[in-house]
Request: fold
Amino acid sequence: MKARRFPTARQSARFLPILSTSILVLSGPWLMAANPDSWNNFTGTNQWSVGTNWLDGTAPLSGDATADLTFGGATSYIANNDLVGVFLNTLTLNATVAESITGNSLDFRTDDTAATITQSGTGAVTIGNNIVLTNPLTLTGTANAPLSTAVTLNGVLSGGGTATLNSGYWQLGNAANTLTGATTVNTGATLELISSGAAPQNLSFVAGATGTLGNSALTINGGTVKLTTKTTGNLNVARTVTFGTSGGVLDLTNTSGTAGVAGGNIAAGDMGIVSNAAGGSVAVVRFNGRQVGLSDNDTTSSNLNTGGNTLRFNSITGSGAIRVELTNGALARAGNGAAGTVTIANPWTYRGVAGGDPTSGITGSPATMAR
Reply:
């Protein structure tokens, strides 16, 4: 049986002197005690409020930030949170097949450890609940994990807590996130922003009150951030991205997934880059143009459509190295629309393949870019 950390009964004041020493000794560990529990119903759709669905026979307590929950299993199921006011300290996912968690919101709070979601299984997990980052949240998993193990967060992400991705493959599928705490993607982690609705779907990378990343400042520090549209969906990339000392990769993916059918464009927005890459690390920005399905990704194909595929930068700052990788006729330009060129002080490299930017291969510091 789970016990709350904070009893509600009041003790008479006359007992306080007698008990003060015991309270001082015991209050720290007692107040920070964890409440671990594991899901124990691996078929169908089942409710969190039913005690027998949990290994210890009791449901999680609402409003108790000591909850440390684990969801595993070797058969697919849906665990639906029908409780209100659930606070979590840690959520561990270790299933070997695809699983789903749905229902009411999950509010992550710091307790005896930092608030954490850990993917230690090999099965993909979809979490449809809204997630509140009241305190900083850390996301961990296998370093450089494959897409097959991705944890997809389809609910609205809100709150002022920071999100730090240290490893694992994570997807954000909601276009109405409102989180305001900073997001950092470290070495070994992948964050993919996707469109969860029916195709075609646009994808907004814009920094604002709502969006796929909300108003969260993004730092890539050795990890990878991917933006993936659905069929002919377009990208809006009006955001400044900061690269930390370990560099990293920002990958803009416009593929329709269907042979002979072109993907979407960068339809709006100029991007800012701050590169603090150091010690041989590089800030990498990849853009594949308006790309057809991968089975027809060939520059000699009559189906190749490369219209409307210019990536524009409105600011490039910092002192770290930057490499822009362009394919399928993609172009990179400075973004203010005026004639002439701009000077880039950072160590700068264009890299392309057949059909890539005509300036492919230019390296310089300072370099210039056409407006």
